[in-house]
Amino acid sequence: MSKETKANTNRAMNTYGAGLEANTLAMLDSTGAKDNRDANEDRLQYLEAVRAASLVPENGIPPTNKMYQAMFRILRFGRTLELVAASFQLLTQLHQRYPWVYISDGKHQLEIVDEAWSPFCFGSDVDSGEKEISVRSSLFQELIQNMNKGVDESEESDLKILGNMFLFKYLVHVLKLDFTPRNQVFEETTNWSLLKESSLNLLLASRKVNFKLLVKDCLSTMCSPFDADGKSISLVELHKGMLSAMKELLIMIIELDASKKKADEEGITNRGDGVRTPAMEIIVDELTYDEYLLSNFLQVFDDPKLKLEIVLQYLIKYIPKPSVRTRRSNTPQTEDLKTLNGILKTFSNGTNAKNITKKIGSVIVQILIGHAFLAQLTISNTNEGDSITEICNSVIAAFTSLKRVDQKIEILPFGKEVLFTAEMVLKAKA
Amino acid sequence: MNMDGPLDFENEDPLVNPPPSAEKRKKVIGLDDLVSEFYKEKSKLIDKGNRKRKASKLYDSDDDERGQQALLSIVDDCRNQMNEICSEEDVQEWGLCMFGDQKAPTQSLIADLDSCHLLKEFMNSQLNSLVELNPDNGTAFLEGLLVNGWLTKLILTCARVETIICKWTLDMLLYSSKEDLRSSACDFWCSILLSQNEVNGAAVEIEWLPNYQILNEALESYGFRISSSQDVQLAEAGSKSQGPPQNIRAWLKFVAACCQIRFKKPIFTASQLEQIAEILVWLLLDRSLQGLSLLLQECVVSVTESFKEEEWVSSFKKIANSLASRVPQDMNCLRVVESVSGVDARSKHLRSSIANQTLVVLLDHKESDEKLMSSLMSINLKEKSCNLFRTYMLLVLAENWLLSSKMVEEKPVLRDMWTVFLRNCFCQINSTDLRPFASKVRTKASYLLQGCRSNGSGQT
After folding, report:
1. DSSP labels, A295-313
2. What is the mean pLDDT of residues B395-409?
3. Predicted ipTM?
């Protein structure tokens, strides 16, 4: 789909927009005297009319902010699944066609549309009409908490649950469309103000958000068991979509943290930017000592780079500090500990393996090594040439070393799968 | 009829005089107000009756008894009339029940894992002393590999997958009753299929690929009611049936992935693709699958995009033809049109074409586009017997036919005829017309007329 960059004939567009706004919104106006079914029918008509005007024609008219607001109102308060799904789809397609933040072709410059509509509202100076519809930080946090309540215990109706999932998915989608280009340009230009004004940053910087709680809620939602049996097909599909949205949210937060750290180091942030514990730290802390959470989280969270980083941060805490061992080695140990291979090598030393296992338990060691290996396989797939065979060898060596140190150590089914995979990759690459 | 003269309502064209936003918007049509006013009047009448009745009760005189009875019967008449008017509802809903009872699959894809090369090779290795893999725990082990994602990564890294593994994983995808198995199997297949499109990464060499037959059999075992050879026999929505198993989700994602690699590895022929496109649209008519509507529409896009250009020119017509001749002639035929998103070029094409073919079927018409439009223009909406629900369908279909494509740009005469039809719909229906769908037809026509004007002025 072609991106409609700066409206070439802005004024003409505005006139059309106003006319379109009046004509389409009139469809919703007359709902007062009607019963529910009629009103729902009108809303569907409205959505179809916006689609026909803004999406179908090659030079479609972008919806006005009021029209967006009306669509979002249907998404938030729609009383049938059909309405909620249709408004979700229409809004996402409109955002793709008419982005409010994008990188201009070839120029590596960020284009931001002035006064573009957003489902979020972080300021306090909003007129009361929009207040009830726009999403504030506190509502977003509440939404995540609702997701965490789980589908089973909730007494709410199916539609309410599905509606909340659609809403959450949509909001994360908006955050991502807003964040990704800003972060990309930040990485090239280190212009912090771009990120500072991103919806994600504004959302998290709000005093109404308990950041730590938010991250924890995400974790426990992602790790809570979900039994698909006996649930509707729609619910199972949306639950999956909700989980992957939550994963995307966490990834964005971690990326924002990283960019903020970079900006801090450059000295371009100020006290107004606030301080918060990086999400990665919170995650690693939460996972520590909780075998169940750890194993489930690593299973669900499949971004290979971040997953590898989480495991490495976890393991590094328990690996003997390099200063003790520098006597015997010429290579700088700290550098080694930044890679999986380096860390795995410390396991081949029997004393190290014994110490680490004693501290964190053989089960967790296996889970950590396994998931780091899984992540590494994904990364190596995309950039060929890395010493994948070397890593396979180190993985096998680490496991055999564990077993050598203590014969009683039970190798988990998961551990066996690790060994199987490492061995078969070696055979294929041989 | 004077086609160029302005109509009275055009003077208040909000495009020319955009209404100030702070003010209450001027409604395009105040019909609803009129209707509600009408009801209000009637209920006032009833209230009056009630009040009179109460008043008469105070006297409790026998003389009033007869008058009271008479009044009561008038009130009753009023009520009945009102109920009659109200029960002729303007709302009809789409929805078909596409799935009957599930059947056992006719044949299993699972072969004996004993001959699985992958497992056998490992059993011979030294490391098996730690893993203790043997023919008895082979299946369980393979399930673990699949669910935890090892199998996918292993196959992507080794860039080759043997027949037994292909069949076993596809069987999990299509028939497993365990969510983690079917969804992991789906991830597995999507990854190895899509690796064919990777520019840099190595494409996985897949020893065995499924065919359309296997997928179709699976769908039939889910209880899907329409096969290509059969005539449509559909239960109305609401009839009790089991519905499809959760595997339908994996089925859809798998089919989409197969389509996405068609240029590299054709799995379906063009005519099979046509059937798949049709199946997807049918699935969009099932309300129990509404949560899948996004997935379904993405699938439709994957399918339409996978036709080669030379196939598409004839295929889109066949899809449209087949759908139009089989879909029930009620709200469902509008839903069929609206379920094709109309965002990309091909889906616009398809949307327009389905609308056109449905018009042809509804009007029993096989001649030129102009003839089709003139039979729309010749509908007399003033006629009491005129079926306005049918007119409403024709209106929406014609809108989609003409406006989803470049039809009106290519044939300006169609645009003029379209405008006439819209004016007929608007002018021949009185704003106080209480026939079912009268208000809908009128409102819709009025809205579309605004569009004609803005388009017209936009191009000059």
Report:
1. HHHHHH---HHHHHHHHHH
2. 89
3. 0.91
